[in-house]
Amino acid sequence: MKKIFFAAILMTLPFAMQAQLGKSLLNKAKSKAQQRADAKVDQAMDKTLDAAENSVKKGKNNTNTNDAVPAAEDNNTTATASDAPKEEKPAGIKAYSKFDFVPGDKVLYAEDFNQDAIGELPLTWNSSGKGEIMTIEGVTGKWVRGYQNNTLLSGNKSKFGDNYTVEFDLIYYFNPKETGYVMPNIEFGLFSSRGEDNGDNRFLREYDDYNDVEVKIHPNREGIASVESNLDHARTFGSDNVEVPGFMKAINKPLHYAIQVQKTRFRIWVNETKIFDIPRGVNTKDTLNQLFFKMEGSNYKDDEIGYYLTNIKVATGVPDTRHKLIEEGKFSTTGILFDFQSATIKPESYGVIKDIASVLKENPTVKVKIVGHTSSDGDLNANMELSKQRAAAVKDMMIKEFGIDAAHLETEGKGPTQPVADNKTAEGKAQNRRVEFIKL
Hints:
This is OmpA family protein. One of its GO terms (cellular component) is cell outer membrane. It holds the Pfam family OmpA. This protein is an alpha+beta fold. 21% of the residues lie in helices and 29% in strands. The chain folds into three domains: 2-55; 59-316, Jelly Rolls (Sandwich); 321-439, CATH 3.30.1330.60. The protein has helices at residues 2-10, 19-35, 39-55, 321-328, 350-362, 380-402, 426-432; strands at residues 106-111, 126-127, 131-136, 139-146, 150-153, 163-174, 186-192, 211-218, 224-231, 234-238, 242-243, 254-262, 265-270, 273-278, 290-295, 305-316, 330-333, 368-373, 409-415, 435-439. Strands 1, 3, 4, 6, 12, 13, 14 and 16 form an eight-stranded antiparallel β-sheet that branches. Strands 2, 5, 7, 8, 9, 10, 11 and 15 form an eight-stranded antiparallel β-sheet that branches. The protein has a four-stranded mixed β-sheet with strand order 17-20-18-19.
């Protein structure tokens, strides 16, 4: 009975938060393994450590995707670890039925690092220590690797305005050789440089000097999150602690973060779950104009812990779907996302499609044409076909998920032939990767 109890405890070691207990259990496990007195305990320990060591690997060792040119352009690819258990993969579209996030309609800043060299920090970014672009085995796209005791500032140079959205994908990386130490917090947020260069070195440590909103997530059971705001060296808001469902199960796997700011209102979702909706969480004295990402320090070494970040998008405005579609005759969105080189709709697109479907239900006689568009990256013919498939996928979802009459929906694919922005910039490419709804 004691052996069974001990094995059950040992299998939880990667997420243990009590240092003394963790070290004690680890020492006992080593002793048992050496004596070969308890084969079950030894097997459980090996299985746990093997899973942690193999879950995420540095992209420098991944030679399959570094310089690959896709057949069709990439629309904010989803990263999925190759060895992730099936039961822990992100939930499907229906799991996002309460996800009401709708991104802004004009892209201000976008970053997927596709144009950056592996092994280097992007030229437009700044770091208090180090950071580098990597690919991850079994995961699509390029990611910037962030380290503990280190702050990263993005390459954004645009003011965000009063109403805007921020999205990004982030992996909390944890690959310990020994466990028992406290896992460090991951922090991110928005700040104002008040007319100064928002990439200046001093903002690596003084991002809260003028005006900021910051989110802190502490790995503990489900994950604990809090929000605080600061203005002129004084804290103006501090939230309660809330749980982040699924955070610990997503260690070494991507989570999608979505933030919406409407003047003073601050809302944030992690995957499909809204964890904060704060009416007066943002100070409006200064316009926020920069993103920061930070991991606190720990007793783990840099090769054991850190984070990966990609698919950053800041978009301005509050889309008025009904006015644009019904009165102006066309609604365009960059918020419907698809898997890499695929017509599979990503779950975080649910809020946008739901919004459009609601307008059509309110106006049952209206017919629309759904038109898919891509950037100019990749092969022209492949992009033309992909845009047609993606438009058809949106139509199919609106029929099956929201009950829209199929006779009121047409589809078309334009590929990269009708750009609305410059395909030479990341922001322009993100704006061109869109789905349009045209009133017939």
